[in-house]
Amino acid sequence: MASSGSNFSLADAKVAELQEAFKQNKLTSRQLVEYYLSQIVKLNSKIRGIIEVNPDVLTLADQADKERKAGASIANTGLHGIPVLLKDNIATQDKLNTTAGSFALLGCVVPRDAGVVVKLRSAGAIIFGKANLSEWCHYRTGPNGWSARGGQALNPYLMSVDPRGSSTGSAISVAADMVAVSLGTETDGSIIHPCNANSVVGIKPTVGLTSRSGVIPLSPKQDTVGPICRTVSDAVYVLDAIAGNDPYDNATELVSRFIPSGGYKQFLKENGLQGKRLGIVRSPFFNFPNENSHLGQAFENHFQTLGQKGAVLVDNLQVADITIILDSKQSGEATALKTDFKINLNSYLSKLVSSPIRSLADAIAFNLKYSTLEMIPEFGQTLLLEAEQTTGTSDPAYQEALAKMQRLTEDGYVKLMTENSLDALVTPNSSVASMLAIGGYPAISVPAGYGPNGAPFGICFSGLLGYEPRLIEVSYAFEQATKVRKPPSYLV
């Protein structure tokens, strides 16, 4: 099904376009779901972006159509009747599994919907299915986008190019038009990495702006849930739906103070770059190797566009201890994550209604018993085993790691942003991920172009806590000024 009549095409349709088609009776939610199901039949066996589809998805679509026809108030929400794909670490209390890509959790029963899923359902969204990911959010060692349940996810633009992770399936499924809206999670780069590699838009929210309850955890200090879509506007519609307080995640009560009255859609301004102060740290972010020399010219062109649209470029800035910050072992991040992962995963597993495993140790034992992949060098349990060996938050090494991360953040990123009065830092692809991760800072990744071989690359706009309004203005204005993104052609 390529369209639903009246010259309306479903291919790569935006959320606003879908909602308008609903209102004009050019489209039903059932037709939209059927279109995405046909795309999955055609494409998913090639790129393996989706692990499973909700068996009730057509029933949910029919329910949305009935609500719309009856004039129900919920039908006026921005995501009503829109299918949403969830990364397979976001719990749903329905017929879908929540496994982080591992067979060890297949068949487990969660106590309730994740906090963001509650908000999606309240907004009338259709829970479409679960996306492939790097197993255990890449805490089981393996290629980006690989999980035991989902197999190897592939880049829809060029299968030989790394699709990045861990929210790989969420990004490639949106890029290939198997769904318009998805959710990913990020601890360190797991939204912005796959978004820049697969030419889609991702919002990594301020940690605590969106609930992490019901999400298989790595670290509450760094974990965040955010939208992955094809346009900034679509991602913002989703952010409006999922941001806010959740009684099951204490961090949301404090961080919800950053949510502006009237929500985030008001910041979708074509003139959003006017007067914005954008920082550029040349080294190391723009030191491209010879094989990526095309990126240098591409970003110089983008800088020119940003300036022409009214931004003030603050160039040649430096970040103190940037080499240490970007190295997770040197910064202390790796040490802190191992401890946090064990504690928080064990807590999550202990609260499941039923589960084949109840601890990290059980997950490790499961892999040893059933997997033959541990004999292959690129697959293994190194991180899982190291996490299991940690002794808790009272360990001096853990406390030292937290203190070091805080010092590096304050002397580095915070000082950079505040002393230069920056509205955003501009970086290529996802090279800034670790600097944002250790401080819990937000970012938006936007498609920025394609290399000589057709491989996508992105641009990242990042800021301090609660800077989402500024980042939305900047990223939307950049997107509208450049209109770089194009769908993957060879899959058609």
Automatic annotation (TrEMBL):
Spans traversing the lipid bilayer: none
InterPro entries: Amidase_dom, AS_sf
Amidase domain: residues covered: 32-432
SUPFAM superfamilies: Amidase signature (AS) enzymes
Signal sequence residues: none
Protein name: Amidase domain-containing protein
